[in-house]
Amino acid sequence: MTLTRRQVYRRRRLVVFSVIGVVLIALLSGLIYSVNAIAAPLPATSATLAEVPALTQPASPVAWPDFGRTAIGAVGTPGLLATAGDQSTGPIASITKMITALVVLDKHPLGAGEAGPDIAYTEADIDIYWETIAEDGSSAPVSAGMTLSQRQTLTAVLLPSANNYAQSLAIWAYGSMDAYLAAANAWLAEHGLTDTHVVDASGLSAGSVSSPANLVEIGKLALAQPALAEIVAMKSAELPTIGTVVNTNKLLGTHGVTGMKTGTTDEAGACLLYTAVSEIDGQQVTLVGATLGADTHSELNDAVAGLLDSTFAGFHTVSLTEAGQQWASYSTVWGDTATAESATSASMLVWSDTPVETALILPDVSLAADGTNLGSVTFSSGGRSATVPITLHGRLGDPGVGWKLANPR
C-alpha cells in the first residue's frame, strides 16, 4: 500500500517525537540518579578500636594488727579498702556513744560551731550518775540545776566518754531510754547498718554490737556531721561544773589521726574507731577505720599507727592517659583516614592494686574536621572517676561528586 505524503510526514514526526521522548526520559533518569547520588547521605565509618592498655599496679603491703578484727575505708570510696580478722558482729563498747551522738543529731541537728539548745540537769541525772558509778562505768560529775549546751553535753559524751552523759543526752532528745533505743535501731536500719544493734546509749552492755564494716560506715556518717568532726578533734575542753575533760583517744594528732572514739569493756577488749587525714600528691585522703579486740590501748594504738602509715603509703598516682594517646582509627570507603586521640592528659590517685576501669564512648562518623570532639573516655577506680575528651586527628572529608556518582548509596 502506497502511503500518502501526509501519512509519511505523520509517521516521521511520530518517530522523531518518540526518539526525543526516549532521550528526555534518559536525561531525566540520569538527572534524578545524579541528584539522588549527590544528595544521598554518606555512609558512616565505624571506629576501629586500638588495644586498651591495662592500668594495673602491684598490691601494697599493709601492716595489719596481729589481734582482733579490723576494717578500713576511705571517704569518697564506697565500701572498704581492706579488712583483717573476724568480720562478724560483736560488742563495740563505748564506740556505741558515736551512734548515740548521730541519733541525737538526727532529731536535734547541730551545725559547725553551733552550741545548740541548753540542757537543764535534774535529780534524775544525778540518779543516772550514781547508777553509772555502781556499774563501774566511765562518768563525769553532774549536779541538779546545772546547764550545759547540747554541744557541751556531746563533748562530755565523746571526749572523756562519760556513760552518764550519754544516757542523759539520749533521754533529753527522745524522752525516755526506750524511745531512744527504738529510734536508734530504726535509724541504723534506715542507713543499712544491719550488723549493728544497740541496747544502751553508752556501750557498757555487751548487747550493743556492730561489725568492723558497719563501724567504718558509722565513722563516715560522723565525719559528715561538722559538729561531731569538730568535737572529736579536740584534745581537751573546759566544761561548766565538770571542769577539764581530756580526749581518751591518745593517737589524736599523730599519724594524721583527727578522731574519733575509744571503747573498752571485758567483752569487746580495747577498741578504736578512728579517722586520719594525709595529703598525697596534692590530694587529701581521709581514712576511716575500726580496730577491735586488743588487750590494751597501748597495744591497740601501736597497731593502728602502723596500719595507718602503711595504708597511706599504699596510695599512688596512676597515669591514665597522655594527650595524643590513640584510642581508635577511622578509614572511610573513599580513602580518608584519621585517628581518635586523648585531648588531654589525666591521672588518678589509686590505692594499692584497686582496679582501674576504662569506658570508651566513640560514635560512627561520616564527615568530620580535624580537631572535632568525638566522644570521651572515662576512668573509674575506688569511687573516683576522670573523664577525658577524645578528638579527631586528621580529616574525614567529602569524597566529591565523582565518587558519589560512581558509588550510589
Quick summary:
This protein has 409 residues and is an alpha+beta fold. The chain has helices spanning 5-39, 96-107, 123-134, 150-158, 163-174, 177-190, 212-223, 226-232, 297-313, 401-406; strands spanning 48-49, 69-74, 82-84, 90-91, 118-120, 147-149, 209-210, 236-239, 243-246, 257-265, 269-280, 283-294, 315-321, 326-331, 337-342, 346-351, 357-361, 373-381, 384-394. Helix 2 packs parallel to helix 5 (163-174) and helix 4 crosses helix 8.
What would your notes on this structure say?
There is one protein chain. The protein has 409 residues and is of the alpha+beta class. It has helices at 5-39, 96-107, 123-134, 150-158, 163-174, 177-190, 212-223, 226-232, 297-313, 401-406; strands at residues 48-49, 69-74, 82-84, 90-91, 118-120, 147-149, 209-210, 236-239, 243-246, 257-265, 269-280, 283-294, 315-321, 326-331, 337-342, 346-351, 357-361, 373-381, 384-394. The chain has a 6-stranded antiparallel sheet with strand order 1-14-15-19-18-17, with no helix packed on it. A 5-stranded antiparallel sheet has the order 3-2-12-11-10, sandwiched between helices. Strands 4-7 form a two-stranded antiparallel ribbon. Strand 14 and strand 15 (337-342) form a beta hairpin. It is elongated.
Reconstruct the topology from this structure.
Elements: H1 5-39, E1 48-49, E2 69-74, E3 82-84, E4 90-91, H2 96-107, E5 118-120, H3 123-134, E6 147-149, H4 150-158, H5 163-174, H6 177-190, E7 209-210, H7 212-223, H8 226-232, E8 236-239, E9 243-246, E10 257-265, E11 269-280, E12 283-294, H9 297-313, E13 315-321, E14 326-331, E15 337-342, E16 346-351, E17 357-361, E18 373-381, E19 384-394, H10 401-406
Helix pairs in contact: 2-5, 3-5, 4-5, 4-8, 5-6
